[in-house]
Design a protein that fits this description.
globular, single chain, alpha+beta
Length: 192
């Protein structure tokens, strides 16, 4: 009985216009890719009033023993506060768009055109929940360095997690043993 009264009250309120659905305008999908890219470009360049990027939030060694720098977005008001999402999306989504539209110089000249075209082709596949996944080569889900992000299948993403269990292990001995012993396998999967 109480449920039917509640339903009737909601129906009356909706008809009268007293109840309205909130329309969000701050979400990733409500902007064009170029607009999201410009927004992240402001963060990367330091021009954004609220956010900035720490370009060395984490430094890791890859399968060739080269340093790889993970980027992390933080709040300028509270520099110790890391930002989990921007425009209701993970920061790495914006960074990938930035690398295509405004940050093309990020990619090496020899690979630039091919990489940009590959990303533009792959981006629509990660829009839905059933599509492909954004795979973090570094294993840090907060990392927004476009060079650490690949688009791939859910299966490949799950395999990555197993690699990163060892590559990000708190015990440095385990990390180094895995990285050096299985460097060819890590290189094949492009994980570090």
């Amino acid at each position: 009985m109480a449920k039917s009264k509640l339903k009737k009250a909601i129906k009356r309120a909706t008809k009268k216009g007293t109840a309205s659905k909130r329309i969000r305008t701050d979400v990733f999908s409500s902007y064009k890719p170029e607009e999201n890219s410009k927004f992240f470009d402001g963060i990367v360049s330091g021009e954004n009033a609220l956010y900035a990027v720490d370009f060395q939030a984490s430094v890791k060694r890859d399968y060739y023993n080269r340093e790889r720098h993970c980027w992390r977005v933080y709040s300028k008001k509270e520099p110790t506060t890391w930002v989990k999402s921007l425009r209701s999306a993970k920061a790495y989504r914006l960074s990938v768009l930035w690398s295509v539209y405004d940050g093309k110089q990020f990619w090496r000249p020899k690979r630039r055109d091919k990489k940009v075209q590959s990303i533009l082709t792959d981006l629509p596949r990660i829009e839905g929940k059933q599509g492909d996944h954004s795979r973090h080569r570094c294993g840090n889900d907060w990392c927004c360095n476009p060079g650490h992000i690949q688009i791939g299948s859910r299966k490949a993403n799950e395999i990555d997690k197993h690699f990163h269990y060892f590559l990000n292990n708190p015990d440095s001995g385990v990390r180094e043993a895995f990285r050096t012993t299985l460097s060819k396998l890590c290189s094949k999967h492009k994980l570090f």
